[in-house]
Amino acid sequence: MSTSSRKLQSEINRILYVKNLSYSVTSEELYDLFGKFGSIRQIRLGNAQNTRGTAFVVYDDIQDAKMACDKLSGFNFQNRYLVVLYHQPDKVAQT
Predict the structure, then answer these.
(1) Residue 80 and residue 77: Cα distance in Å, rounded?
(2) Is the Cα dihedral 1, 13, 18, 68 positive or negative?
(3) H/E segment holding residue 82
(4) DSSP letter string over 17-79?
(5) What is the C-alpha end-to-end distance of the chain, expressed in Å?
(6) Do strands 55-59 and 76-77 pair parallel, antiparallel, or not at all (unpaired)?
């Protein structure tokens, strides 16, 4: 396996970071949308000034998270195009 393939595989995980959400979105609405792809363990909405419009979605299964990321990145939800990324804890720790 090439180095780039290994790096890509290590970036895929059960936790998705979602940006560009409406400030009025609720956890229930996110459960309805993201729950179509599998069992969700937790959703955390950003509510601080610098985290509004973002959320973390934690799936029970990594394959469900991958499918949701693939299908919902760029999806138009509440008249906003979602940005869905895999959570990268090492990048968060650096900021």
Answers:
(1) 5
(2) positive
(3) none
(4) EEES--TT--HHHHHHHHGGGS-EEEEEE--STTTTT-EEEEESSHHHHHHHHHHHTT-EETT
(5) 31
(6) unpaired
* This prediction's pTM: 0.83
Report all structural domains of the chain as residue ranges with CATH numbers, in order of start. 11-85 (3.30.70.330)
Q: How many CB atoms are closer than 10 A to CB 80?
A: 14
Instruction: Match 């799936």 to its residue by tokens.
Output: 59
Could you identify the residue written with the tokens 């940005």? 83
Residue 9 tokens read as 């595989």
Q: Could you tell me the CA-to-CA distances from 20 to 1, 44, 85 in Å, in that order?
A: 34, 15, 12
What is the widest separation between alpha-carbon atoms in the chain?
Answer: 44
For 1-33, how does the pLDDT look when each residue is reduced to its tens digit (9 = 90+)?
444 444 444 478 999 999 999 999 999 999 999
